[in-house]
Amino acid sequence: MAEENDAPMTGANAWGQAVAAVVLVGALGAGFWGLAKTSSAESEPKPATCSDTETPAPKGKHLSGAQLCEALNRSDLAALLGTPMEIAKTASGSDSSIGKIATPQAQVEFETYTVTLSATYDGLPVAGSEALLGSDARPRKTLGRPGVLYSDRTIRISFRLDGQDADSGPGVPARALTVAQDAKDRGGSLDVTLWRADGVVPDDAVLLRVAEAVLPTVPGWKARG
Questions:
Q1: CA distances from 79 to 34, 118, 161 (A)
Q2: Of 144, 142, 155, whose CA–CA distance to 192 is shortest?
Q3: Spatial separation of the C-alpha atoms in residues 172 and 155, rounded to whole Å
């Protein structure tokens, strides 16, 4: 009788252990899947955010590098460039100047393209400046304001590991668009410049698409009329 009574109990224990094992394996699998998903999410690169600048932001009506960076480093910038799968590697703004002329600038770098947005407070009109911007410069009215489309070139800087002076020279070709800060062209400009890492000359259609999307978001754009 003892053996007969024990048989069902033994079967029940075995069945219970089997069920418990299946549940345990399932729980462990779910745990590892959740951990792998979390690790994968954490390892995925995130778009660069605008870095803080050490230079104090200018006072008054001048734009700052930080403001320009916020306008340029938009979530759809890669799509505007025609490379929607890329993410921004670096994004920064600076409050530079040339003499007494304020020239704040922002830059966002992708795998294929690098884009800069800058402002120049030189008090000079944009109309007629094509004569100073190279032989291929041509007027290009943009968003209802005077503008000039022209070619430029980056500067290549090589740093030496032995501590000697850095070497510099011409870099890759770039295309640039300068637009008057106001519709009446009373002086000063906003400039969008674009170049490719592979050295191919950027398409003007890409440059204009970026400029026409970014410039209206610059603080004070409407106020400058």
A1: 31, 21, 37
A2: 142
A3: 8
